[in-house]
Amino acid sequence: MPRQYNPQRKRYPKRSQPEVKKLITTFGILIATSLLVLFVGIPLIAKMGGFIAKIFQGDEPIINTKKDTIAPQAPYLESLPQGTNEPVIKVKGLAEPGSKVTLILNGKRSKDVLADGEGSFEFEYVAFGLTYAMGYIK
């Protein structure tokens, strides 16, 4: 004889109070362990890896920290105008990146600039004065 549908019959048995507590405790421990591994374990493993790398690497630094003691090459100037009716000009060029470039105008130190990361530099508003054919750049 086939079974009849009984809407009051429960499919799953009701869990007892100790089983629910045990289930909640197990999930709590699982979440706490996961958080502990995430926030403590992974950074600890990374630090240990760095420590072990230092042990096997020796005394050589990873990054070259030696001071640059070689003088930079003379800067390259872009071509200057043969003549101009302006009282000032721009002097542009290339040098070693980060080096100091000094403009000497008519035998006197005029201006200093630092070359950018690509080595470009520019002196703006370079005035030769009113002397005729006496101005030169060194």
Describe the structure.
The protein has 138 residues and is of the alpha+beta class. The chain has 2 domains: 15-66; 76-127, no CATH class. It is built from 1 helix and 5 strands; from the N terminus they run H-E-E-E-E-E. The protein has one helix at 17-57; strands at 76-77, 88-94, 100-105, 108-114, 120-127. The chain has a 3-stranded antiparallel β-sheet with strand order 1-2-5, with no helix packed on it. A two-stranded antiparallel sheet has the order 3-4. Strand 3 and strand 4 (108-114) form a beta hairpin. The protein is elongated, with a radius of gyration of 39 Å. 4% of the residues are buried.
Supply the key terms.
single chain; 138 residues; alpha+beta; 2 domains; 3-stranded antiparallel sheet
Low-confidence stretches: none
Element pattern in H and E:
HEEEEE
Count of helical stretches: 1
Largest sheet: 3 strands, antiparallel
Computed over alpha carbons, the radius of gyration is: 39 Å
Which structural class do the helices and strands define? alpha+beta
Averaging pLDDT over every residue, what do you get? 79
For the termini, the CA-CA separation is 114 Å
